[in-house]
Design brief:
single chain, alpha+beta, OB fold (Dihydrolipoamide Acetyltransferase, E2P), five-stranded mixed beta barrel, NA-bd_OB-fold
């Protein structure tokens, strides 16, 4: 067994308490979860980053007050005051535990604000037929 191996995998769930678009590569959001102890019943607040592309696929989950399940890894940086700031970088997100643990069985489909269906982050808009295509149809 290799004792030099390090693991950095996080599974966490909680209630979304904030979503912030910093116009960067990532969307920042926070969740409220429970402290892991049998002696105390307290909230824990966690800061997370999700890549913009992944966020847009599951945008409908990111509503304040929604329960969310997250898979990711722990990340950190040293701020201007030389203090370590920790956060979780998200690699997967779901609205149920089974999809995080076992994986998805189907694509994520949602409706955008303008009524267009979104299939795994891609808009499913109809493309109007060209004049040439319309002329071909009139022959039949």
């Amino acid at each position: 067994m290799n004792n030099d191996m390090n693991f950095n995998k996080v599974l966490i769930s909680g209630i979304i308490n904030a979503v912030t678009d910093t116009n960067d590569k990532y969307i920042k959001f926070g969740i409220t979860t429970r402290k892991y102890t049998t002696k105390e019943d307290k909230n824990v607040y966690v800061s997370l980053n999700i890549e913009r592309e992944l966020y847009h696929i599951y945008k409908d989950y990111f509503i304040k007050g929604n329960k969310i399940y997250v898979k990711g890894y722990l990340n950190s940086y040293i701020d201007r005051n030389k203090k370590i700031q920790s956060f979780i970088t998200v690699t997967d997100v779901a609205n149920n535990l089974e999809e995080i643990i076992k994986g998805r069985k189907a694509p994520h489909i949602r409706e955008d604000v303008d009524g267009v269906l979104i299939w795994d982050g891609s808009r499913c808009e109809s493309t109007p037929a060209t004049l040439e295509e319309q002329k071909k149809w009139k022959i039949y």
